[in-house]
Amino acid sequence: MNPVNTLTTAITKELIEYLRVFVTEERFHKFQAVIASRTRHLTLALEDIYQSHNASAVLRSCECFGIQDVHIIENRNKYEINPDVALGSAKWLNLVKYNGVTDNTRACLSHLKEQGYRIVATSPHKNDYTPDTLPLDCKTALVFGTELAGLTPIALELADDFIQIPMVGFTESLNISVSAAILIQSLTGRLRHSKIPWQLNDGEQSEILLNWLQNSIKRSDVLIRDYLKKHG
User: Fold this and answer.
1) pTM of the full predicted structure?
2) Most buried among 13, 144, 174, 177, by the most CB within 10 A?
C-alpha cells in the first residue's frame, strides 16, 4: 500500500515542501497553476470502451480541460490506453476501475450516486438536456457507452438525466472521443464562468499535488519513506 494514501493533510503538505526541491521551480509552479483549475464537480464514467485510441483520447481531453477523476467500467472489455494518443495524460488523473463484480455498471453508478453525483447519460436518442442547458448546480457524472452499441440498458435505467449534442447532419452520432471533448469543454467552461464552487478543496489539492510530485521524481517512494522515518 502506498503510505501517502493514509497521510494527514498536515504531513502531506510537509512532504510537498520536502519533495518540491527535487523538481524545478518552474515545474512546481506549473503544478500549482494546473491544480487550481482541477475539478471533481464534473466527472466521467466510461462503460466498456474497447478501442484504445478512443479510450486514450478521452483521457487526454479530461486532462486538458481539468477533469481529475475518470471512472472506468470493465464488464466485457478491458480499458486499454494507447500511449501515442494519451501522451502521458493518465499519470495526472485519478483512474478508478470497476471490474470486480458481475454488474460493474451498477457498482460504478451506485458508488457515484452515494458520492452525491447526478448521473447524466449521453445518448443521441433522448431529448433531454444539451451542453448549454444541463444544470450544473450539483455534482455531475457524464456516462459514455461503447462505440457501436452505446450505453447498456442498466446504465440508462440508473441515469437521472440525459444529454445529447445537437446535430444537423445525416450522421446519427459522433465518435465517443469527439463527443466527450465537446461536452467536457462546454461544461467546464460554463462551470468556470459560474459561481458554483467547482474547485478542489485544500486537502484534495494537496493529495493530488503530492501524487504528481511522486510521479515526477525518481525513487520518490524511497525519499518519502526516509522522510517519514525521520519525522514520523
Assistant:
1) 0.90
2) 144
